[in-house]
Amino acid sequence: MSEWQLTETFRSTSGDVRWDSLGQPGQDPVVLLHGTPFSSYVWRAVARSLARRHQVFVWDMPGYGTSEKSAGQDVSLVAQGRVFTELLSHWDLEEPLVVAHDFGGAVSLRAHLLHGARYRALALVDPVALAPWGSPFFRLVGEHSEVFEQLPPALHHALVREYVSSASSPGLHPAVLDRLVQPWLDDLGQAAFYRQIAQADQLYTDEVQDRYGEIDIPTLVCWGQDDTWIPIAKGRELAARIPGARLEPIAGAGHLVQEDAPAELTAALIAFLQHSR
Questions:
Q1: Which residues form the AB hydrolase-1 domain (predicted)?
Q2: Of 247, 258, 255, nearest to 179 (Cα)?
Q3: What is the CA radius of gyration of the chain?
């Protein structure tokens, strides 16, 4: 499997952020946002395809992937929306094309509606955007994160693998699963895994969901038809709330569409991004 490494570092208000760009500088910029408990690694196939015609920016959110993880770190949606706005300024991107998955969807929506971040177009992939959200497991961990942080490593490893596996409908390749869970397995990673769940408050989407009607840029909503984390009914509701938005169901894909149907997702994104030029 080809290696995926982020070579640049940005010092954000929530710690060091690892990032990189693919493609030729000066091409139309596209920014990709990952969700939780993932990292930019989930975008590797899509990013490399988009980089043929775009300069593609990828990053690991603070507390995720190869970015900084530290005790007391603010990794909430409030912090991530602020950090994303800081990154756009650091990259000198005024109106990029934005593609955001899961929590990254909430981050992009908050940055746009609350922090004034401007996009030329927005593609949302199975985003966390509408209440209620969070599985029973997610809520249980959020309420007792300090207990889960103390799990013996073997039990924690098994829990993380099972949880991440459930994001895929057909199942993840073992090497991919290993890479997805790796950031969470050492002592810093175990604490960070439960920290990001503990700080995932629905209040942060409640603050913006009644403002989706204000979005006046081209918007695509892609959704895995077999998503068990957030059902496609939420995708239909979200697309109906955003003026002119179109829903693109993706067959055979669960929540982690980038792994389950990368070709179909990439095709949908390329068509949308080209139309949004």
A1: 29-262
A2: 258
A3: 17
Q: Exposure string (b/e) for 26-40, b if CB count within 10 Å is 16 or more?
A: eebbbbbbbbbbbbb
Contacting residues for 55 by C-beta, under 8 A, at least 6 apart: 21, 22, 23, 24, 25, 26, 27, 28, 29, 30
The rounded distance, in Å, linking the Cα atoms of 169 and 251 is 10
Contact 24, 53 (CB under 8 A): no
pLDDT tens, position by position, for the chain (277 residues)?
Answer: 458 999 999 999 999 999 999 999 999 999 999 999 999 999 999 999 999 999 999 999 999 999 999 999 999 999 999 999 999 999 999 999 999 999 999 999 999 999 999 999 999 999 999 888 777 788 888 788 888 888 999 999 999 999 999 999 999 999 999 999 999 999 999 999 999 988 888 777 888 999 999 999 999 999 999 999 999 999 999 999 999 999 999 999 999 999 999 999 999 999 999 887 7
d(CA 240, CA 87): 30
The CA-atom distances, in angstroms, between 17 and each of 20, 144, 216, 228 are: 10, 28, 30, 30
Q: Which of 39, 77, 13, 80 shows the shortest CA–CA distance to 176?
A: 39
Which residues are CB-contacts of 9 (< 8 A; sequence separation ≥ 6)?
Answer: 16, 17, 18, 19
CA distance 214 to 227: 27
Which of these, 227, 220, 234, lies nearest to 256 by C-alpha position? 227
Q: Which residues, in sequence order, are bridge partners of residue 250?
A: 224
Q: Determine contact, residues 15/75, Cβ cutoff 8 Å.
A: no
